[in-house]
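Give me the fold.
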Amino acid sequence: MKKIIVVSILTLLSFNSFANDNAKRLTEQILKGDISIFRNEGNSNIRHAIPTVNALQLISEYNNNQYKYEKTYNNQIVNIKTSASGLKTDLSGEPFVVANGKNQFEYVLLELKNKDDAKEISEGNKLDLICVGTKDNLSFPILKNCVKSDDYFQKYFEVTMSKINKLEKDDKPSSPIETFYLALWKFDIQKPNTLDKYKTFSELMQNKSDFDEVTALVKANITEENRTTTMPTP
């Protein structure tokens, strides 16, 4: 009798682990897909948290209404895509990047978080950076803590999946991606082996019946606290 009980417990643990693996596998695909859509300027969840801007846009908004600009961008994470007009150093010898507007008298100053990144930047280089806006501007816009988008999103992916790996199936989600993960996990427990056949999340979406069930589990756990994606500060 004891042997039967032990076997039953091991079977249950094995099943739960497998269900969790399916949820993690598909959640990774959702997360990577959302990052890819954002970086290709599509309508991703990240888009609601990180606006994409360029130097001309920031200069125009700053010149038109400095008060409104600072209200909009102070402590706001932004993805700036622009060209480097040159590298300079401040009074302490730290490097920063200048991105010109229409002429050399209009520019955005980009302060690098990782100073060694300056070694890879030359005049004319295309830049794709994640930065933080500030109200501490001079006579031109300043963005701080700028890091390469590749590095930022790699860290974002790793940190997000690390948090997901620590969740239990009955935990409360704190973000949309955690809500999807827990919904997939519960679905896999309720309908064993169903998710095994889906190699990609896109394949799951194409099966209306299964996808609707997952969506229903997501909707049941969406709250005001977890419906918005909060992106980490670079």
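The first strand starts at residue 52 and ends at 53.
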